[in-house]
Amino acid sequence: MYIPRHFQPRSQQETLDVLRNSGASDLISYSDNEFQLSTLPFVVDEEGDVLRLLGHLARANPHWRCLDGSDAFVLVHGPSAYVSPSVYPSKVEHQKVVPTWNYVKVALRGTVQIHEEPSWIETVVTRLTEKFEVISKNPWNVSDAPRDFIDSQLRAVVGVEFLVRETDAKFKLSQNRDLRDAKAVRDDMARRAEIEMYEAMGYLKDL
């Protein structure tokens, strides 16, 4: 991934926060002369310097059958938003401005292990549920559904463990603009209710 110096993350913690707070990611692999892509919601496992993403795929999805033991990519999407040059104060001075796009992306390279043990899959499904149900007024729990129904649903998926080997992260958040322009972009994100992008540009509070 092309990452100019000013778009590099300020710390490893910043990248980890994107992973911890992420929703669904793109799992991408290459085999038999073709690329395959699946959506993978995940939770993060951290043990010292070892980083793993845990999730699941539908058993009916043929993608998983070529994944076990293979290398793959996971692309994690952070906030993204269009930036209009009309908000730049510098536009009034010289007109030398163009539109762009601000975004946060994390690209991970690693190795996949497939799990078919029901207990492993249920643990991951439970963790995923707990992670994402926090937004619900009345959070749903795996135990809310009948046991035989849950068992049938677990048989319909396979577990995915992605062992991260390399991490690239890009935080393109107007750091290449002068401070006035960057702050104007952040103000415009607030006006447009692009809350995630507004918060991602919080580095401007320290400048």
What does this structure look like?
- With 207 residues, the protein is an alpha+beta fold.
- The chain has a single domain, classed as Pnp Oxidase, Chain A.
- It is 29% helix and 36% strand.
- The chain is built from six helices and seven strands; from the N terminus they run αβββββαβααβαα.
- The protein has a seven-stranded antiparallel beta sheet.
- A hairpin with a 2-residue loop joins strand 3 and strand 4.
- The radius of gyration is 20 Å and the shape is elongated.
- The mean pLDDT is 96.
- This is Negative transcriptional regulator, PaiB family.
List keywords for this structure.
207 residues; alpha+beta; Pnp Oxidase, Chain A; elongated
